[in-house]
Design goal:
mainly alpha, Clc chloride channel, CBS-domain, 3-stranded mixed β-sheet
Length: about 575
């Protein structure tokens, strides 16, 4: 009896873990409700499309097709620039950055602004998907509720990932894919506690979404089947082709982003408007590329689509969709990439299916390859094969597709990683000074910024200092390197023991004749305060030095601190405790 009483008391005693469990249900319910509101908000914004149908083919229709995405981009860019600190583009990279660098802190103002900006971008014809804002909303709610209950950082990050997973589950009606997305993409870990919290959140979000929207399959598709054993070889070819296509889209997106970044003197709203106008021009000739791409995928998966959609038309639509998606997001618009990427994969799959059917008439219909292409393209874009498999399985509710899908996704993932070790999200994070690593030991240092480790203020020697003065300074401070400053206090060089010894060897007759300016190395590694310790270590190794200067982002000659390898070692030891 006493044992039962102890179990009962232990069960009801409040703990951080139990609080996290309860909060995961709350976050899931909030994410499901928020996803429903966003879907309805998006429907309201899209009323212009219905209105346009009354003037189909008129001059007004053509003008609005071009200008609507531009006006949507203008409004979305203004919202992001004014209320979201200029956090443009895709939401997944932003959430990963918040988890790694801000301990799960997602400002509520940013969440609201990005949600409205996404509705404007998508609703006015921008080629973006609804899952980006769903992830942003869910993550923002998880962060808000966790901070409200004052959760410790590790629990807060788990709750943010759980909210994002709930958003995915609610939008796609895919709870398992939502769980895998949070664990495989956001947290990049499979810890049992994180798994349980994310599962509870996605289940709750799915229940709320089902109650509000009813039972629905995100994508109605015919039942998949393999008609001939030789098709397994075609699956391998499809996987390779999709990998190259995913790489092409990533490079196009990054190239477009760099192009708009060169226009940094223009306000973000103006750049987003220009991107929207380019999308409108494309949409004037190929209206199928406007919007996320769900309707295009439905058309591809219809029986007979291989007849109505010719090879030439599919190639044009594929290039147009890649360009429109890049213009929509890289210019400053807001939204997600999941659905546009799925539509690209469907087009490539249909093209390959046509080729297979021409060589092997008894093969499965071309639309079957479109289904496989969708999952493979998603994997080639995210480098998340498990999420890709589960997402396509859930949105089609088609079990026979699993084995062929696993084959194509596996090949695509391997080839994609061989072409480039970094996914699009990794490239986006790299621009912010955050590098994702498969190595767990390096990942420990990714969460620590240079500002947290650096020593400040930094004592520098003038460029007129003699060898004796430099040697005395090193002996006094026990440092093996010293930065050199000019008359205005700006850093101009770095002297290490190597330069000092070499100078003494060269001037052994009259060492007093040598000064710092003549022996210093003018090429030396620097880093900004917001960069990671991993990046600092990488740059030190590249320059073969044991210290790195931390400089102001706006003025690389203004030294704010210094980091040595000993400092990094201390951080690493503390992180592993």
């Amino acid at each position: 009896m006493q044992t039962l009483r102890n179990y009962f008391l232990r069960f009801w005693t409040p703990t951080e873990s139990k609080r996290l469990t309860v909060l995961s249900v709350v976050v899931g319910a909030a994410a499901g409700l928020a996803a429903f509101i966003f879907i309805k908000l998006n429907d309201v914004v899209q009323l212009w499309v219905v209105w346009l149908s009354h003037w189909r083919g008129s001059l007004l229709d053509k003008v609005l097709i071009i200008t609507a995405p531009g006006l949507g981009g203008l409004a979305a860019g203004w919202l992001v620039d004014r209320y979201a600190s200029g956090q443009r583009g895709i939401g997944t990279a932003e959430i990963i950055y918040a988890l790694r660098r801000r301990n799960g802190y997602v400002p509520s103002r940013v969440t609201t602004a990005k949600t409205l900006a996404s509705a404007l971008t998508i609703g006015t014809g921008g080629s973006t998907g609804p899952e980006g804002p769903a992830v942003q909303i869910g993550a923002g709610l998880g962060s808000f509720i966790g901070r409200w209950r004052r959760l410790p950082p590790e629990y807060l990050k788990t709750l943010v990932a759980a909210g994002a997973a709930g958003g995915i589950a609610a939008v796609f009606n895919a709870p398992i894919a939502g769980v895998m997305y949070a664990l495989e993409v956001l947290l990049q870990q499979m810890a049992s506690q994180a798994f349980a919290v994310v599962v509870l959140s996605t289940v709750t979000a799915s229940i709320v979404s089902y109650s509000l929207l009813g039972h629905r399959i995100f994508l109605e598709a015919p039942i998949f089947y393999t008609a001939h054993p030789a098709e397994w070889a075609a699956y391998l070819v499809l996987g390779v082709l999709i990998a190259f296509a995913a790489r092409l889209f990533t490079e196009l997106f990054l190239w477009t982003e760099r192009g708009f970044r060169r226009l940094s003197r223009w306000p973000l709203s103006v750049r987003a408007m220009c991107g929207g106008l380019l999308v409108g021009i494309i949409g004037l000739y190929r209206p199928e590329v406007l919007g996320a791409g769900h309707d295009l995928v439905v058309k591809i998966l219809q029986n007979g689509s291989e007849i109505s959609l010719t090879v030439g038309l599919l190639l044009i639509l594929l290039v147009a969709k890649m360009a429109a998606t890049s213009f929509s997001l890289a210019s400053g618009g807001s939204g997600g990439l999941f659905v546009p990427v799925l539509s690209m994969g469907a087009m490539i799959g249909l093209l390959v299916g046509k080729g297979v059917h021409w060589v092997l008439p008894q093969a499965a219909p071309p639309w079957a390859y479109a289904l496989l292409g969708m999952g493979a393209m998603f994997a080639g874009f995210t480098y998340a094969p498990i999420t890709s498999i589960m997402l396509l399985f859930e949105i089609t509710n088609d079990y026979p597709i699993i084995l062929p899908l696993m084959t194509v996704v596996g090949v695509t993932t391997l080839v994609s990683r061989a072409l480039d070790a970094d996914s699009l999200d990794s490239h986006e994070l790299g621009q912010k000074g955050l590098r994702l690593h498969d190595d767990a030991e390096l990942s420990v240092l990714e969460n620590v910024t240079a500002a947290e480790v650096m020593s400040s203020p930094v004592e520098m020697i003038p460029e007129t200092a003699t060898l004796q003065e430099i040697a005395r300074w090193m002996a006094r401070t026990r440092h093996t390197g010293v930065p050199v400053s000019d008359g205005s206090g700006h850093v101009v060089g770095l002297i290490t023991y190597s330069e000092l010894h070499h100078a003494y060897d060269e001037t052994n007759e009259s060492p007093e004749s040598a000064v710092a300016k003549g022996i210093m190395r003018t090429a030396f590694p620097t880093i900004t305060p917001g960069s990671s310790v991993t990046e600092a270590l990488r740059r030190m190794q590249a320059e073969n030095v044991d210290r790195i200067l931390v400089v102001a982002p706006q003025d690389p000659r203004s030294v704010q601190g210094i980091i040595t390898k000993s400092d990094i070692l201390k951080v690493y030891r503390n992180a592993l405790k």
